[in-house]
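Exercise 7. Predict the joint structure of the components listed below.
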Amino acid sequence: MSTHRHSELEPIADALGDSARLNWAELAREHPESAAVLERLHALEKLAEAHRRARDEARDAPGSPPMAFRWGPLDVHERIGEGAFGEVFRARDPVLRRDVALKLRRADAAGPASAWLEEARRLARVSHPNVIAVLGVDEHDGRAGLWTELVRGETLEARLAREGPMPAAEVAVVGVDLCRALAAVHAGGVLHGDLKLSNVMREGGEGVPHPGRVVLMDFGSGQDGPPASPTTWTPLSAAPEVLRGGPVYARSDQYALGALLYRLLTGRHPIEAGSLAELIERAGSRTPPLRDLRPDLPPALHDAVLRALAPEPEARHANLAAFERALSAAIGARDGQVRSRHIVALIAAALVLGVAATLVFVRVRPAPPTAPAAGTAATPVPSAPAPTALSASATLLRRTPSGSEALVDGGAVRAGDRLVLQFRSPEPVWLYVFNEDAGGAASALFPLPRLATTNPLAAGREHQLPGMLDGRAFAWQVGEGSGSETFLVVAGRQAVPAAEALAARLSPASPASRGATRAERGVETLVEEPSPGEAAGALVKLERQLTQAGPGVWVWRLRAIHDRP
Amino acid sequence: MHTPPVPSPLESTAVLLDRVRTGDARARDRLVRRYLPLLQAWAHGRLPRRARGMADTADIVQVVLYRALTRMEEFEYRHEGAFFAYLRQIVLNAVREEIRRSVRRPSTSDVGDEAPDEGMSVVEQAIGREMLGCYEHALMRLTPEQREATILRLECGLSYVEIAEAMGRPSANAARMLVARALVPLAEAMREHAPAL
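Solution:
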């Protein structure tokens, strides 16, 4: 094959590697001289799809992998962790058919099992997307245990060891999440007591429900309010008052959060010392040298972190909400901009890309609706949730003039990027896509009343959203902005009332959203402009509501960081 | 003062293999944890339905993986990240042997009652035996790095970030380019091996 023809087909291979849906019949018509090679590329797509199906089957197969032993209601599989308190296992709830993490207390662990169980019950009162969800507490076969959601991914400690200090905006985003998580913990009457990088996970990996979610994991002292023993804290993260053995406050957790963010920014502890006595002396009198280590930090972020690390509790942020606001403001102010309008617009990709990008459009264009629309609309929907968890897969793709790539959590977006969501579920679903910026301005990205693509989405085929109108594929376009953009994707076997309500509130047609349709350089553009703060925290609230929604609802979240071109 | 480097939780396979060669049991455990679930899921797609019980798959893959890691002298890797392709080939041979044995094994039911596709794997059903054979031949025409990356992406569904980590590539984009540039030559080689469609 000639080099020219080779290079013609590479973008198609690129899209195939990205798992983009390709219209093979149309591609064969456009490249008749390469029909045989295209047929093999199509076979490769089928091969990848078959392997994906086999993986799904293997994951759901009963008895997979072999069970090690049974504890109460759970089938216990391999050990995944160990600590002074006991062991952590991956286990499976055979009734709900979901994997969980089971912590079993050592029979010879210090203290009565009843106290340990009581602490676990207190933790179970806390419900927040950024706090690990305790699913059950019990005692069987002489061993006390609690089971939680199983979070797959890596700890922030592992992330730091692998990639070194984080970009400023990413640290601020983690800080905002952890402020919210700690506030929820405190509202439950519990102090965390051992906040550190190894106790915070970032969810990731194939098929996880909320890639990129920051999750507060192990609780150290887990004290039911003050006082707490300093022996349960990690000294290099502990506030001076904890090190001195004095009273412990919610602001002691705030200090530990400041120390965590400081490490993410610099790779170092804020105060380092050769002995505990030296550490106590230094922590009570020194300001950590943050500016010297990260001269690139926005002043607002620098000040927000150092204030949390103030030696005296009363000099720290008044509360976690204030700390969160300071971090959010630091992100928003990074580019010297104040967000005045929302940044996501909907643009007809075909028109915007123009002639030079024809090939790009061809390879990203979704297959025509081979399944009749009437069949889609008539898809029967169960009247009650089935006992098995709804499964789905979603990929947010960023289209650039040079190609497309799957957006990973924490990845960068720039003004002008076009985004599409590839979504597939083995069942017909109602799908909702929302977006929220760092300032809390939210908008509904799907469904949109003006598009032909609408709910419910048909089962078993890949949908490319936001969808189609008059035969043209649409994309969301990223506008000017700073800080982070959170995308929340919700799927349900039936319409999800909480998501419907939020979508209605944020819809461009709703008076609440102040949306506007206008013509811009000849391209019809739909711009949503909710006023800043109008729906602040709307996605977090929705996600919190959905934690109790049961197996018929599937939620996926991804956060992207604005990057200047 | 010299400070030892912090061990990365995501060391590349080549680094772990070097440590396995020196008898490092923890490195071996890490490789097992990395590759066992991957290989088990992969083999699930290549075993015929009637031989695809999880116990069968798990047994075959575990035996192959542990045997491979205790006989490292048989694996001469010249390129970073050819290890999965090596393991996959051994598992593939074991799967073929399993298929042969399952054919020889007396069936308790009337063969005529058996569904016609019970002897085929999920992947064979999807693209046909001949096409799968062409694919396997064509894979050998790729460079070891291209082969490894293609297998990890298409057959194992790893993200580009995961492929970069496993293969010691500098970025997800580098892994993505590796895959994208392998697929057209792979399809061309498949055409050369295949009978006319």
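Discussion. Residues 342 and 542 of chain A are 19 Å apart (CA to CA).
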